[in-house]
Amino acid sequence: MKGLTSFFDRMVQRYLPDAFLFAIILTFIVFILGMGVTGSTAIEMTQYWGDGFWNLLAFAMQMSLIVITGYILANTPLVKRLLAKISTLANSPGQAIILVTFVAAIACLINYGFGLVVGALLAIHVAKRVPSVDYRLLMASAYSGFLLWHGGLSGSIPLLIATPDHFLQDTIGVVPVTETLFSGFNIFIVVTLLITLPLLNRFLMKSRDPLNNTDASTWKSEDTEPEEEAPVKEEMTPAERLENSQILSLLIGIMGLAFIIYHFTQNGFDLNINIVNFIFLFLGIIFHKTPRRFLISVTGAVKNVGGIIIQFPFYAGIMGMMVASGLSQEMSMWFVSISTEYTLPLFTFISAGIVNFFVPSGGGQWAVQGPIMIPAALEIGADTAKTAMAVAWGDAWTNMIQPFWALPLLAIAGLKVRDIMGFCVMILLYSFIPISIGLLFF
Question: What is the pLDDT of residue 210?
Answer without folding.
Answer: 59
